[in-house]
Design brief:
Elements: E1 12-17, E2 20-36, E3 39-50, E4 56-57, H1 60-65, E5 69-71, H2 75-78, E6 88-90, E7 97-98, E8 104-105, H3 109-113, E9 119-121, H4 139-144
Parallel strand pairs: 3-9
Antiparallel strand pairs: 1-2, 2-3, 2-8, 3-4, 5-6, 6-7
Organism: Seminavis robusta
Protein name: Retrotransposon protein
Length: about 160
C-alpha cells in the first residue's frame, strides 16, 4: 500500500476557510510524510477533510482535542520551539507538525515499514464530534474580566466606558 492509507469515508462535510467554502468533502484516514526540525515522521490523520489532488484540511480543534497544542502564530512572535515547522502543531505526543499548509507528501511503502521513522497519530481514530468543543460563556464572565490597561498600548481608543 503506497501513499495514503485507504480513504475511509465516514461522512460528507462542508468547510469554510476565509471566503472559500468547500462542500461535500469526504472524511478520510491518511498518512503523511512530514519533516520536522527533529527529523521525519509519518503523521497519521484520521477524519481529515479530503480535498482534491491529495490535499486535506485539518481542524485545529480536532488536533487540540486529541492532545496536540496548536500554535498559529508567526515564528517571529513565538521564537523557536523544540520540534517545529511553522505554523505548527506542537506537543502532539512529542512530535509537532505544521497545522496549516504543511509541506507533506504520501509516504511510500519503504517509508511506511521503516521502523526508524516514528508513526504519530495526530488525530483520534475514533469518531469525533466538533460540537464537543462548543461553549458559550455566561454573561457574568464578560463583566468579571479586568478592563484592559497597557494591553491596548498607547492608543487613544478606549473600548470601555469610563
Amino acid at each position: 500500500m503506497s501513499g495514503l492509507f485507504t480513504a475511509t469515508v465516514n461522512s460528507l462535510i462542508s468547510v469554510a476557510l476565509m471566503t472559500i467554502q468547500f462542500r461535500d468533502l469526504q472524511l478520510a484516514t491518511a498518512a503523511a510524510y512530514i519533516l520536522t526540525d527533529h527529523g521525519l515522521i509519518i503523521g497519521l490523520i484520521h477524519q481529515g477533510a479530503a480535498m482534491s489532488h491529495g490535499k486535506t484540511i485539518l481542524s485545529p480543534g480536532q488536533l487540540e482535542h486529541f492532545g496536540c497544542r496548536v500554535h498559529d502564530k508567526a515564528l517571529t512572535v513565538t521564537g523557536l520551539d523544540p520540534y517545529f515547522v511553522t505554523p505548527m502543531v506542537s506537543g502532539c505526543h512529542g512530535h509537532p507538525v505544521r497545522a496549516t499548509l504543511c509541506p507533506t507528501r504520501p509516504p511510500n511503502d519503504q517509508e511506511l515499514s521503516d521502523s526508524s521513522i516514528p508513526h504519530v497519530d495526530l488525530t483520534s481514530p475514533h469518531a469525533w464530534d466538533p460540537s464537543c468543543l462548543d461553549s458559550v460563556p455566561a454573561d457574568e464572565w464578560f463583566l468579571q474580566q479586568d478592563k484592559p490597561s497597557t494591553m491596548m498600548g498607547s492608543s487613544h481608543w478606549t473600548p470601555w466606558a469610563t
